[in-house]
Specification:
- It is built from 15 helices and 13 strands.
- The protein has about 375 residues and is an alpha/beta fold.
- Strands 2-8-7-6-5-3-4 form a seven-stranded mixed β-sheet, sandwiched between helices. It has a four-stranded antiparallel β-sheet with strand order 9-10-13-12, with helices on one face.
- The longest helix is centred in the C-terminal third of the chain and has 23 residues.
- The structure holds pyridoxal-5'-phosphate.
- Pyridoxal-5'-phosphate binds next to α5.
- The site of pyridoxal-5'-phosphate has 12 residues, from α5.
C-alpha cells in the first residue's frame, strides 16, 4: 500500500471493501471445463458467412439503442409471449444488476435459496440491498418450501432469484413450487433460466400473465459466452421501468450483429445442445461407476460431484497438474463440502477429464 491509499479506501463503502472481486482461474493450456461454456465452434463456412456480415458493420456509429432486429429474433427463438416485453443486457449479469438497482432502498431484501449463482449476493450487496438465503435440502438440493414460506413472510423480499436449473447443483425446481413462490412473493420473482435449453423446461409461457414474474435467459451457456448477451422477459410495465436504469448502448454492435446471425443458424446450436445433453448422461454414468466420487443428476451442462477419497482441493490440483481445469466448490457453502463442478465438454474432452480423474485419485 502506498501512502494515501488508506485515505482513498475511506471513501469506498465498507460493504464493497469487504467483498472480493470475481475470481477467474487462468486456464493456461488446460482443457477448460470450469465455466459452463459450449465446447463446440462453428463450421468454417458458417464462420465465413459471419465474417462477411461483420464487414458491413459501421463501428464509427453507435449501436441501435433498442437492438430491435436482434430482439425480434430472440422473441421467436425463445418463444416469448406476444404481450411480454424484453430487456437486453451485457450478459444476464448486467440484468441482475439493473433489477437490483431498480428495487434498492433502505431495508429491502433480496432472497434466494443457497447454494446458487454467487452474483445475486454480490450484486445485492453492492446495490445496498440486504441479502437473505434459505438452504436447499442437503440430499437433493430441492427447495425447502417450509423455510421459503417463512423467509418470504419474514423478509417481504423486493426480489426473489430462482435459478432453474440451479447453478452449481444442476437440478430444476418443481414447477408447482415455483408457481407457489410467484403467488406468495410480495415483490418480483426472477426465474433465471440460463440452463433452460439443456433442461427443455421453462416458465417463459407464463410471462405477462403473472405481473411479478421476470424470466431471464442468456446466450452464454449455449455457445456465445464471448458476446455477452442476456435477455429479460416481463410485463411491459415492469420492463419499461427497468429500461430507465439500463445505460444507453449496453449491447454493442458486434454483439447485436453476431447474435442475430447466430440465431439464423438455430439448427447448428440445437445440434450442439443435443450432443452436450448426450455427453452429460455418459459423463454422469462414468462418474457413478467410480466409487471415489458421487455425482448428482443434472439438467444443465455441468455436473456437481462430491469426492470421498481425498479433499476436493487436492483433486482440483491433481486434475490441473494433469491439464484439466474444473471448479472447486468446497468452502463456498456448507452443503458443497468436498464438492467439485465439471462442465460437460466434447466427448474427447470428457475422456481426458475422466483419465486425469482416475490418475489424480490414484496418486
Ligand atoms: C452463468 C450464469 C449467468 C450469467 O450469464 P451471463 O449472461 O454470462 O452474464 C446467470 N445465471 C446463472 C444461473 C448462471 O449460471
Amino acid at each position: 500500500m502506498v501512502d494515501g491509499d488508506a485515505d482513498v479506501a475511506r471513501w469506498i463503502r465498507p460493504e464493497v471493501r469487504a467483498l472480493s472481486s470475481y475470481h477467474v482461474t487462468d486456464p493456461g493450456e488446460c482443457v477448460k471445463l470450469d465455466a459452463m461454456e459450449n465446447p463446440y465452434s462453428w463450421p468454417p463456412q458458417v464462420v465465413e458467412e459471419w465474417l462477411e456480415r461483420l464487414r458491413g458493420v459501421c463501428v464509427n456509429r453507435y449501436p441501435d439503442p433498442e437492438a430491435r432486429v436482434l430482439a425480434a429474433r430472440l422473441r421467436t427463438a425463445m418463444a416469448v409471449p406476444e404481450d411480454a416485453a424484453l430487456l437486453l443486457g451485457n450478459g444476464s449479469d448486467e440484468l441482475i444488476q439493473i433489477i437490483a438497482l431498480a428495487v434498492s432502498d433502505a431495508g429491502r431484501t433480496v432472497l434466494t435459496p443457497e447454494p446458487t449463482f454467487v452474483i445475486y449476493r454480490s450484486v445485492a450487496t453492492v446495490c445496498g440491498l440486504r441479502y437473505a438465503s434459505v438452504p436447499l435440502r442437503a440430499t437433493d438440493f430441492a427447495l425447502d418450501m417450509e423455510a421459503m414460506r417463512r423467509a418470504i413472510t419474514r423478509y417481504q423480499p423486493a426480489v426473489i432469484f430462482l435459478a432453474s436449473p440451479n447453478n452449481p447443483t444442476g437440478n430444476v425446481f418443481a414447477a408447482e413450487e415455483i408457481a407457489e413462490i410467484i403467488d406468495l412473493a410480495p415483490g418480483l420473482v426472477v426465474i433465471d433460466e440460463a440452463y433452460a435449453p439443456f433442461a427443455r423446461i421453462s416458465v417463459m409461457d407464463q410471462v405477462g400473465c403473472r405481473e411479478n414474474l421476470l424470466v431471464m435467459r442468456t446466450l452464454s451457456k449455449v455457445g456465445l459466452a464471448g458476446l455477452r448477451l442476456g435477455v429479460l422477459a416481463g410485463t411491459a410495465g415492469c420492463i419499461r421501468e427497468l429500461n430507465k436504469i439500463r445505460l444507453p448502448y449496453n449491447v454493442n454492435t458486434l454483439t447485436q450483429v453476431s447474435a442475430e446471425f447466430a440465431l439464423t443458424h438455430q439448427g447448428l446450436f440445437d445440434e450442439q445442445i443435443r450432443k452436450i445433453r448426450h455427453s452429460r448422461s455418459e459423463l454422469f454414468r462414468a462418474l457413478q461407476q467410480r466409487t471415489a466420487v458421487h455425482p448428482w443428476p443434472s439438467q444443465a451442462n455441468f455436473l456437481l460431484f462430491r469426492v470421498s477419497a481425498c479433499s476436493a482441493a487436492s483433486l482440483f490440483d491433481g486434475l490441473r497438474a494433469r491439464g484439466v481445469l474444473i471448479k472447486n466448490m468446497d468452502g463456498s457453502n456448507p452443503l458443497l463440502a468436498n464438492c467439485l463442478r465439471v462442465t460437460v465438454g466434447t466427448a474427447a474432452e470428457n475422456r481426458v477429464f475422466l483419465n486425469a480423474l482416475d490418475r489424480a485419485l490414484l496418486w
